[in-house]
């Protein structure tokens, strides 16, 4: 803790700068370094001064557009339900610090996007197939508990801090229950605000439709295509006006069939996307069939090892 409590409170409130908390303490945690920023919070690496264990801490940012504190509290409630490292969701707990609620979570490794950059912006087919299996498995777990993520992208998947073959899904700030209190699927609505990251969002998200389980899976396809080809057809759209940029991205997504988007990839990826596009709004995806399809593809290729690209390159 600081010698000057008033100064400490001022510092914790002034969190718009990425590095201004490094070296300071929050309760029993000392901030080691800045990791990244999300849509409503900054994430830092911290050490527990009593146990010497490392964790990550997420500190909310209040802006004119979003109430970061409320969103962080809501995200914490979702993590409380989902947290299960063996299923790809890190352990999380909420702590109080002055007038704020902060989130402390397992310290994870690099994001898939960071690893993608280190691998010269291209993953091997072996890694892409392995990711398909792991991502579908994680989504099956999330959906089983009644939630959809709604913002799946390479930055929101990471590897473990110690176990580099373990994939985790993070950042549930935009997640939503698709099962209501009566146990029924939420109704279809065609007048929602856009939710997600435009590059990887489903077409339904661009149409401002209510999202469901199939939209998370569609985002997974875009991620896998991005990892295999190094880009998406709409990756280089540079339009300053966000509304016009999103419209242009939507127009590009509409143009591509599954066969065209997954050109050069095994047929299984085309089947995956085509099936997703035929699903009804409230339909339960056949997760196990999808996983079996990609497991068969993986085994058919007779890979000599069972390593991800970053493991093989020791990143």
Commentary on this structure:
This protein is an alpha+beta fold. The protein is 38% helix and 17% strand. The strands form three sheets. It has a six-stranded antiparallel sheet with strand order 1-2-3-4-6-5, with helices on one face. Strands 7-9-10 form a three-stranded antiparallel sheet. α6 packs antiparallel against α9. 34% of the residues are buried. The N terminus is likely disordered.
- Average pLDDT works out at 92
Low-confidence stretches: 1-6, 8-12, 14-18
Shape: globular
**What kind of sheet is the major sheet?**
6 strands, antiparallel
Task: Output the helix-strand order.
Answer: HEEEEHEEEHHEEEEHHHHHHH
The number of strands is: 11
Oligomer: single chain
Query: How are the strands ordered across the major sheet?
Result: 1-2-3-4-6-5
Strand content is 15-25%
**At CATH's second level, what is the architecture of the largest domain?**
Orthogonal Bundle
Q: Within the CATH hierarchy, at the fold level, what is the topology of the largest domain?
A: Transferase(Phosphotransferase), domain 1
- Radius of gyration, in Å, reads 20 Å
């Amino acid at each position: 803790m600081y010698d000057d409590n008033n100064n400490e409170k001022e510092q914790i409130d002034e969190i718009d700068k990425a590095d201004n908390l490094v070296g300071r303490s929050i309760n029993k945690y000392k901030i080691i370094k800045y990791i990244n920023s999300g849509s409503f919070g900054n994430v830092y690496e911290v050490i527990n001064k009593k146990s010497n264990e490392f964790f990550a801490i997420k500190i909310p940012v209040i802006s004119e557009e979003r109430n970061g504190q409320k969103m962080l509290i809501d995200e914490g409630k979702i993590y409380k339900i989902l947290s299960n490292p063996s299923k790809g969701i890190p352990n999380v707990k909420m702590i109080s610090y002055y007038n704020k609620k902060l989130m402390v979570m397992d310290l994870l490794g690099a994001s898939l996007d960071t690893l993608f950059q280190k691998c010269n912006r291209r993953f091997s087919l072996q890694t892409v197939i392995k990711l398909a299996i792991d991502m579908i498995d994680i989504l099956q777990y999330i959906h089983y508990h009644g939630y959809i993520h709604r913002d799946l992208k390479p930055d929101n998947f990471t590897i473990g801090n110690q176990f580099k073959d373990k994939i985790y899904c993070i950042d549930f700030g935009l997640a939503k229950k698709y099962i209501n209190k009566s146990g029924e699927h939420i109704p279809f609505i065609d007048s929602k605000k856009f939710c997600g990251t435009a590059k990887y969002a489903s077409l339904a998200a661009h149409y401002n439709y209510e999202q469901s389980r199939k939209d998370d899976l569609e985002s997974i396809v875009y991620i896998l295509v991005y990892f295999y080809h190094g880009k998406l057809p709409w990756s280089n759209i540079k339009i300053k006006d966000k509304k016009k940029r999103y419209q242009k991205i939507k127009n590009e997504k509409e143009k591509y069939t599954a066969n065209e988007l997954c050109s050069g990839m095994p047929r299984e990826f085309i089947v995956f996307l085509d099936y997703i596009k035929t699903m009804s709004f409230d339909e339960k995806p056949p997760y196990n069939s999808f996983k079996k399809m990609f497991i068969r593809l993986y085994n058919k290729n007779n890979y000599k090892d069972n390593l991800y690209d970053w493991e093989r390159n020791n990143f």
